[in-house]
Amino acid sequence: MARVAKATEEVEVHYDPKFFSHIQVLEVVSEFGFHAVVVSTGEDVCEVQLQVDGAHSEHSMRMVRNSVEALPGVQEQKFDPGLKKLSISYKPDMVGPRDFIRVIESIEKGSFKAVIYPEKDGRDGHREEEIKKYYKAFLWSLVFGIPLFLLSMVFMYIPRVGRKLDAKVVNMLSIGTILKWILSTPVQFVIGKRFYIGAYKALRHGSANMDVLIALGTNAAYFYSVYSVLRSLSSQNFDSSDFFETSALLITFILLGKYLEVLAKGKTSEAIAKLMDLAPETAILLTLDSKGNVLKEQEIDGQLVQKNDVVKIMPGAKIACDGFVVWGESYVNESMITGESKPVAKRKGDMVIGGTVNANGVLHIKATKVGSQSALAQIVQLVESGQMAKAPVQKLADHVSKFFVPSVIVLSFSTWFAWFLAGKLDGYPKSWIPSSMDSFELALQFGISVMVIACPCALGLATPTAVMVGAGVGASQGVLIKGGNALESTHKVNCIIFDKTGTLTMGKPVVVDIKPLNGMNLSEFLELVAATEVNSEHPLAKAIVEHAKKSRRDGENHVWPEAKDFKSITGYGVEAFVSNKQVLVGNKKLMLDRNVAIRVDAIETLAEIERLAQTGVLVSIDRELQGILAISDPLKPGARQVVTILKSMNVDSIMVTGDNWGTANAIAKDVGIDTVAAETKPEQKAQKVKELQAAGKIVAMVGDGINDSPALVAADVGIAIGAGTDIAIEAADIVLMRSNLEDVVTAIDLSRKTFARIRLNYLWAFGYNVLAIPVAAGALLPAIGLRLPPWISGAAMAASSVSVVCSSLFLKSYKRPKELNVPDMTEIILPDNTKFHIGSVRRAKLLLATPTAVMVGAGVGASQGVLIKGGNALESTHKVNCIIFDKTGTLTMGKPVVVDIKPLNGMNLSEFLELVAATEVNSEHPLAKAIVEHAKKSRRDGENHVWPEAKDFKSITGYGVEAFVSNKQVLVGNKKLMLDRNVAIRVDAIETLAEIERLAQTGVLVSIDRELQGILAISDPLKPGARQVVTILKSMNVDSIMVTGDNWGTANAIAKDVGIDTVAAETKPEQKAQKVKELQAAGKIVAMVGDGINDSPALVAADVGIAIGAGTDIAIEAADIVLMRSNLEDVVTAIDLSRKTFARIRLNYLWAFGYNVLAIPVAAGALLPAIGLRLPPWISGAAMAASSVSVVCSSLFLKSYKRPKELNVPDMTEISVE
Fold first, then answer.
1. Active-site residue numbers?
2. Which of 60, 212, 651, 1053 could form a disulfide with 199, with the two C-beta atoms 3.0–4.6 Å apart?
3. Which of 309, 267, 259, 261 is nearest to 284 (CA)?
């Protein structure tokens, strides 16, 4: 049994190894004309590639192979001397890659060196080569095809040129015919060679594909033309009619289609590569003694981790392998597996999964599963398996061609034979035969006309043109459809599976209710809770602090009281002393552990909260329970409406989630879904999809997480939320770029309408053949004397293709279902309770739009990392003359770094940083992390350095930290801390601090044993290329303005540094939007560049909203353009590309209107009196087709777009921090 994934160019073959080997399978595939390599043999065997240096002779290679062969578990090895690559297959339970390296490097006292081979996937290289091959072939076919078209369709109707081309060389052979023969021959036999090879291999194995039809149709046209040339060469009265251009141009257009096809396929298999990227590149290997004490730490390549290794996982790092915790406590983000954003507490003995992210504590992990046994590898395998099941929509044409091709061949031969036999037997009047022919030639012409008119152009265009237009319309609606596969399956969907977190819900916890228990003042209650939780990094803690900020007038600027003796108890909650009150915030376990009584009414309230799919957080103040906070992940806007609309479309909705049953049932009830599956793992989600498919359902899966990827590919249609993970987006067939759930309805409705258009196209294509073939065969000659010469058959074939294209273009008028046009579907509520609708601001209508240019321009933008959301964005962006930049995260990195150290008393810098870092490594504050990171960089051992122990560590909120390190008292913080601890601040230190603050930097003072030793200058540095971008924009006549919520001092300093003259600081979200409107009122076309929720109103109000790709989901959703790589220079690329695209659109319109202005009078006979020029109808049709083709080719020139050369400077992506 074999399953083919056309999009990823892979085939999965099941065979009995007793009778066949994988080598024989490769040979069979090669016989059919396909290049093939082994991806996996399917056994529980791992493979590793090592680069071996030093093996220069046959003897040394044999020594390496023999040494590796001696290790247990080695199955097979291959050595490529040219690449120095040793490939080893092995059983991971018995041996590992580190053993191979150790053995190789021990040969002859270290004569050999081995490392993991740095190799890109061979399939990617082959795909790139194929894309280049088709592109080159298409360009060469154009080189011959364009002159051939001009000779056949244009020059011959220009009197002077036409007479020269019609000049006879020998007998009736003309110069024009010779030139056409010369130009068409290389296209037919050199450029078109691939179709001959494909047809030969298909026929050799007893099948007929499109290559056979192409070869037959073009050969019939070409060799009939050659016959005509030879007759005219030997005859003085034979009026030859050739159609060399038919065969050459047919091959040219087919090569264009092939190029676009392989280009699209190259984008469909990136999901697996991105899944593999989840595995960390390096791991810290620990060497332990018999008692479990750490003897040594060593950083190794992540691929070198073996079973039973113990590895160290730092906070924020990816876990290197599957295993269990042997030491340490932490929270781990397992959203890639469970889909839930809430981190999971991990202690000794708990299992962890490779690729997940460690949140805050240090963990020691013992590896249990590596290589193909790991959970990540299993997800990859599920994704690959799902892709194997995909069926291309083009299969209808291929299936029909299996019967259609032999039928056409038989019919063509039968037509020739019937007319030839009738001619020999005088079966028809001699008057039917033209004077320049005999009965044999008439019969031959009929046979060739049948062959040409039945050539499968319309059949081949029926699907791709509708898919192309449908995909373009989808993109303008925020629905990215990845080709015909998605369309074919989506239009039949009758069951949709929804993930919960991040799909039906927002994926971010918020406080939805506060249940007071003892009548405590709410303001005081929130003050104490927030002052405690502000020291925690837990998502629930952040939700509580965010809610407390919203409840206050001073909001972000409020300084919470100091929380003393703060403790974070993993899996329980937090405790601290605030304003001399003991505050406990956490779950029931924490309260019971601290002997806090939980009253009956509190237990009932907690049960009610949990019944509503919310999380209850208990708060105790001075050992008395004072209240319960209800925290929930709210439903997305429009979730209920979407489920209701889907029911009206006869589509069932099901929810499958990794969350608990209580939460799942509550959410499902709220949204209107009856069928639920909860507590499911990734493979169980995929299994649920298969169960529904087995029951006869056509299943779509809507998800956003890595854990959804297996189900996304197993489903008939995978639909990914655009704000989800890259893995989910790559694995899906359809991506909802605006992350709006209502676009699920749009995707289904659009696919149904597109596939209805495809059916209509096929009906026309087949109907054309049913009607045209009998006419071409001479069926109407006896009745009305109608005979179709081969060149007329070629024109009819072209007309059929044009009609199919025009039919597909009607999809441009698509409107999404009217039920979706409700005002509250995209409501956004900002932290200050300001509400706005992304759909409430009228966008500029697309006044000038050529779908081909927009489509190509958008595709080029995507390849450059610039996601342009349709023609609206293009129209406005090309006119932009003013850009507003946000500061933090847009112009700056949004991450503090140490930029300078100001020593005061000549203390050794290394010792100074050692003491400061040893203190700050215990803090979670962003400034503390910046200091520790700087200290690591200043040391040779870097990440592996073990800092001295910090005793009696204290974090004083709003002040800084203190501890005893190496028997020295270390204070790190602001002036308030130093004055509070009676540390004298000298005049020069005050001046230094003032200079630091003048430069928009933060000064952190360091005291050691009550004496001020230095000041650290910390800054949020400018993004790479920020200055250059502003300079380039000025040269493009685009003004730059900075609008930020930061203070005036910092804002002015950053603006001066980047070269911006106009600044607005300390602005709220609605003031940013107001600034946009003021500029628009002054006649400016305004673009807004931002990354945060607070930027969203301005992004919507601006003529063009440009979001940083690494920013918030809401900013990305509100924007017209998204900079996927988060590089500021892509702002310049977006404007430059839009200007060039719109210039191309204008050129297309100029040509289209100019063509009509010039051609209509000529077609009406205006030149007949002057120069005798007359255009027959078929020539007018050919000219119309040529006009359309020229517009498409003009748009395709955008593929060669290069971003402005000013951006290609070496320092645009360099960050230098001393």
1. 499
2. 212
3. 309
